[in-house]
Design goal:
It contains nine helices and 13 strands. With about 300 residues, the protein is α/β, with parallel strands linked by helices. The strands form two sheets. The chain has a nine-stranded mixed beta sheet with strand order 3-2-4-5-1-8-9-12-13.
């Protein structure tokens, strides 16, 4: 009897130890979004009345925090090859009007300058970074493989927020959609230096203006060529807010998700569409919450079968 009690006690204590170990075990690192910090990825267009910029400021910790605005996508040089000038007061004016009290411009056309300690001084203390629209390859030309690039990632590492609209959205993915210097109609460039984005949101290809410019199908060939990627297309005035491996859609319109692991019917487009309030798990590749309060729609049930992606 006594031996039985001792054995029972040992088993009980072992179960408590195992439970404690499981409870204290660190959560697995995200595969898509940053382990720390938040991303706000916007499809371009006017953001008035969407609440997106207000959300970005809130995620930074409020208007008293330190903000950096990067206008570089607007162009480094004009057609004559002359360096494009930027005035800080013009770049930050709209943010000041929104009540942001500590906001600075960060811009250079020269990657050698971007690789200096002096240039990243303000960035080292930033709580939030916003990338303006334009052409995403300009951002790559200025900051790829520089100290500035690494400091962008450190903003997230310390729990900050990175956001951007249009080109400032595409730069946040892993594959650089529309990186060709000849114009935005080339979805997949052959230019080797303009194929990689900044990988704030890994394993993704991000496109924008999909509704206003009828780009709904443009990510299809990208995912066919790179089936390991998740394609995300954003309508104007629409954003995804990324935390870890999940994102929530907010704004005016729709987000398309190109998922190569999903089985599609022959009459369907090879992507599906999310609405504001929908929450998507990129790792599990499924909608975990619908903005209309319905946890699972009929169409989701019918198309929930998964298939092994091509490698």
């Amino acid at each position: 009897m006594r031996r039985s009690i001792i054995l029972t006690t040992i088993v009980f204590l072992c179960s408590l130890t195992l439970a404690a170990q499981q409870a204290s075990a660190p959560a697995p690192a995200p595969e898509y979004g940053p382990p720390n910090g938040t991303l706000v990825i916007v499809g371009g267009g006017s953001l008035d009345g969407t609440g997106i910029l207000e959300k970005f400021i809130e995620l930074a910790g409020g208007p008293d925090k330190k903000f950096i605005v990067v206008p570089t996508a607007g162009g480094n040089r004009n057609r004559q090859g002359e360096v494009t000038p930027y005035k800080e007061e013009d770049v930050v004016r709209s943010w000041v009007a929104r009540g942001v009290k500590n906001v600075r411009m960060l811009h250079t056309h020269d990657p050698k300058i971007a690789d200096t300690e002096a240039f990243v001084k303000d960035l080292r203390e930033a709580d939030a970074v916003w990338f303006n629209g334009g052409r995403q390859w300009n951002i790559v030309d200025s900051y790829a493989n520089t100290l500035t690039y690494r400091e962008f990632h450190k903003v997230l590492e310390r729990g900050g927020v990175i956001g951007g609209s249009s080109a400032g959205a595409t730069i946040q993915g892993e594959y650089l959609v529309r990186g060709d210097t000849s114009g935005p109609n080339v979805v997949m460039t052959e230019e080797p230096t303009h194929q990689a984005a900044f990988k704030f949101l890994r394993r993704t290809a991000v496109d924008q203006h999909i509704n206003a410019r009828n780009r709904w199908d443009d990510l299809v060939p990208v995912i066919e060529k790179f089936p390991n990627l998740l394609g995300i297309g954003l309508s104007e005035g629409t954003a995804i807010v990324v935390k870890g491996d999940t994102f929530e859609t907010m704004g005016k319109w729709k987000v398309s998700v190109h998922d190569n692991t999903r089985a599609y019917q022959p009459w369907e487009k090879p992507y599906f569409v999310l609405s504001p309030g929908d929450v998507y798990d990129m790792k599990a590749r499924k909608v975990v919450k619908y903005g209309d309060g319905v946890t699972r729609r009929r169409s989701e049930t019918q198309n929930s079968e998964r298939r092994t992606p091509n490698r």
